[in-house]
Amino acid sequence: MSATVAAALKKAAVYILGDEKKRGKLVTVVLSAAVGLLLLLCAPAVMLSSLGEVGEEAQVPELHINADDFYSSLDSESRQRLDDIRSAGNDIANAMDEKGVKVQTIKAQLIYMSYFEDVQNFNAESYADLFATAQNDSDLISAINSTYGLDIDYDEFVRTYTFVMNSTINAFMFTDTSTKNCADLAAWADNAYISGWGYMNGFIGERNETDRIRYADNAGLVLGYLNYDPMEKVFDSAYSTLVYTEQGGLDTMPEVAGVGLFDGSKHGIYIGNNEMIYSSEAVGYITKDFVSNGGWSSWCTYEGVDYPQEVTDAIESLNEDSSSEN
Q1: Residue 16 — φ and ψ, nearest 5°?
Q2: pLDDT tens figures, 23-39
Q3: Is pLDDT at 45 greater than 60 in this prediction?
């Protein structure tokens, strides 16, 4: 892992430490044999500062430290730097929300904390504009480099972002934490894809204690959303079995992100624009594909998920057609 990536993760750790909800809790740093360094977002930077280059075969045990103790141990200059990072992170979060790209908040904070140390007169609103207008991450990085005179390597950014995202579940992706709804189910699936979750039987999105990577099996991708409490940031066991209803052929499927796809054995989650996401046992991870490329035969809805009127109307229309035929 390059020094730039290591520095990026250290800065990310410092900012997340500023979340008052996480203060006083034990936080964890884990070194991954595969990637050299895997940061849990709530890990304090003090645990990272002494870590140098780590070989691929390195095995390092988990380390625990109290966040309040860490903050108290800082000198006044370090506390000020920490407070400045917190302030900038909060400004970015607010600006991203105002621009309608709240789901990309962690990405924006990570890039800022990784590469903006020498950028003067930073403005969170104009920074958020770049995220609101970029068509994809490649265009985003190009725009940031051009606007701020930086030289961010796109491939390095993708690796860092993926590993950071895998260590957490993006709290900014939910539009309504009080309900289980199809829009947030689609966001959940997209987040799992972006974060590089793997496939493992019996998993619903929790991290494997052996390799510290998140996994979900095919049904578990939906069950994970149903069982995840975004306020407490924990999985419960309210849903143990995926209950679904096949509604009709793909030609009758409404253009609504979060409806399910079914091929007779496995499920996918529609995310819009002819794209869907599913956990594939065959490839070993959560993958994205065009609906037209798969053998999907029907669309379905899931027990526990709320759907908008457009879906309800489509189901009623199918029922009416069925009644007329009979």
Answers
A1: -60, -30
A2: 333 233 222 222 222 33
A3: no
Cα separations in angstroms, 308 against 183, 273, 298: 9, 18, 19
Residue whose structure tokens are 């029907």: 298
| Token pair for 316 | 């009623």
Cα–Cα dist 224/216, whole Å: 8
d(CA 312, CA 259) in angstroms, rounded, equals 11
Could you say which DSSP state residue 306 is in?
B
Q: Which two tokens stand for residue 190?
A: 């997209």
- Count of alpha carbons within 13 Å of 279, Cβ hemisphere only? 26
Instruction: For residues 46-62, give the mean pLDDT.
Output: 30
**What is the residue whose two structure tokens read 């035969």?**
297
Q: How far apart are CA 188 and CA 192, in angstroms?
A: 6
**What is the distance between the alpha carbons of residues 92 and 89, in angstroms, rounded to a whole number?**
5
Nearest to 192 by CA among 182, 179, 207: 207
Which sign does the torsion angle of CA 158, 164, 166, 170 carry?
A: negative
Token representation of residue 268: 């996918």
Return the SS3 of 141: helix
In angstroms, the first-to-last Cα distance of the chain is: 65
Q: What are phi and psi of 223, to 5 degrees?
A: -60, -35
Identify whether the C-beta of residue 106 lies closer than 8 Å to the C-beta of residue 131: no
Can you tell me the distance from the alpha carbon of 316 to that of 163, in angstroms, rounded to the nearest whole number? 43
**How many residues in total does the chain contain?**
326
DSSP string, 18-58: T-GGGTTSEEEEE--TTTS-EE-TT--GGGTTT-----TT-
More confident residue, 269 or 88: 269
Does the pTM exceed 0.85?
Answer: no
- What's the rounded Cα separation, in Å, for the pair 27 and 40? 8
Average pLDDT along the chain? 80
Contact 225, 185 (CB under 8 A): yes
Q: Model confidence over 115-158: pLDDT tens digits? A: 888 899 999 999 999 999 999 999 999 999 999 999 999 998 88
